[in-house]
Design a protein that fits this description.
This protein is mainly α. The chain contains 13 helices and 5 strands. The chain has one domain: P1 Nuclease (Orthogonal Bundle). The longest helix has 34 residues. The structure holds zinc ion (ZN).
């Protein structure tokens, strides 16, 4: 039975930040500029990526005291103020803990709602009947972590933990050899395997007309797939802890999305049938990994010359990071809807029932 209460952040395994040079930085990065003020972060091309080798300048560590809280605040101003109030506590916690992150609740809701509308018929009408469930339960998988620690690594794959871009070893094992994850790979996060597992489960649900279970499995497909599109779910520097940008994870996936809300104009590619499932999942992993550069860079530019609590930081971060949030969430919508569609196609495109004929 799935929980229905809203997700709250869950504090999980401890982590001790290590020197960047020992964290499996890309080979081309290690040959590039690595100094006290810069951490070279790789070479990526294509959608969501950035051409050429780029560097993430280390952000200042200083924290200023909180400013005054205004009596009347717009939604965006409240989001900014909440960010300023919560940031010091959040950053302190990050010294000792790793959060079980996903896209924030609002992002998961938006992704699922848009994914329904991104489907071709007749699947769109079928999922529209269930859109309320799919949106309401979009963050259910995060809640499972509280009861089951083994759920934790299902939400990320740190591609650069034991491999370097473009991750030939992981591609060989995951795509070509179609292996199950090793213990080490599970520790680095096995979301790429989870996406395949739940897509195949959903396909099976469609095939044997198990419509109620299909609703639940569609939620899990969507959640894990969306998590993979969040660039900071693909890197060991998942919270900027290696580049003095602690707290960037929540700043990007929760605070930014909450502040932008409907200003995000998602433009996903239409849903398509995925013939090579593992290849498509790996492609999304690499695209997401490459987009990390834009996230780190937006944060670095926004904090340049000021602290994270400066009133000017968050508006600047919004300006610089909004395009990558838009692109990544659009990618999520396309990915999620394509996986739902693929599950149905692989099931043989079975006739879909009207709501009154559903098996609960
Ligand atoms: Zn998650």
């Amino acid at each position: 039975m799935l929980p229905s209460k809203p997700v709250r952040p869950l504090y999980i395994s401890q982590i001790t930040p290590q020197p960047v040079e020992s964290q499996g930085a890309p080979a081309e990065a290690m040959a590039g500029k690595v100094g006290p003020d810069f951490v070279t972060v790789g070479r990526c091309k294509g959608r969501g990526g950035v051409e050429g080798v780029e560097s993430v300048e280390r952000a200042p560590r200083s924290m200023a005291l909180l400013g005054s809280v205004h009596a009347r605040l717009s939604q965006r101003a409240r989001a900014r103020t909440l960010f300023r109030i919560s940031a010091p506590v959040f950053v302190c916690l990050l010294v000792f803990t790793r959060l079980e992150w996903s896209w924030g609740r609002r992002a998961h809701e938006m992704i699922n709602a848009h994914a329904v509308e991104n489907l071709p018929e007749p699947l769109r009408s079928y999922f529209r009947e269930r859109a309320g469930y799919l949106v309401e339960h979009s963050s259910d998988p995060d809640q499972l972590v509280a009861d089951d620690p083994s759920e934790r690594p299902h939400h990320f794959t740190d591609a650069d933990a034991d491999d370097t871009y473009p991750f030939p070893r992981l591609e060989q094992r995951f795509v070509r050899e179609r292996r199950a994850p090793t213990a080490a790979e599970r520790r680095n996060g096995d979301v790429i395997w989870q996406i395949e597992t739940y897509t195949l489960r959903l396909s099976r649900d469609f095939k044997i007309k198990r419509w109620g279970v299909a609703n639940q499995d569609a939620v899990f497909v969507a959640h894990y797939a969306a998590d993979l599109t969040q660039p900071l779910h693909t890197v060991i520097n998942y919270d900027g802890q290696l580049t003095h940008q602690a707290g960037i994870h929540a700043r990007f996936e929760t605070e930014l999305v909450n502040a932008l809300g409907d200003e995000l104009k998602l433009a996903p590619h239409p849903a398509s049938d995925v013939s090579e499932l593992r290849s498509r999942i790996f492609q999304e992993l690499v695209a997401s990994y490459c987009a990390r550069l834009a996230v780190f860079d937006a944060d670095r530019r926004a904090v340049a010359g000021r602290s994270y609590l400066d009133p000017g930081f968050f508006p600047a971060f919004e300006k610089f990071a909004a395009p990558v949030a838009d692109e990544r969430m659009s990618a999520a919508v396309s990915f999620v809807s394509s996986l739902w569609y693929t599950a149905w196609v692989r099931a043989g495109r079975p006739p879909l029932p009207p709501p009154s004929k559903e098996e609960k």
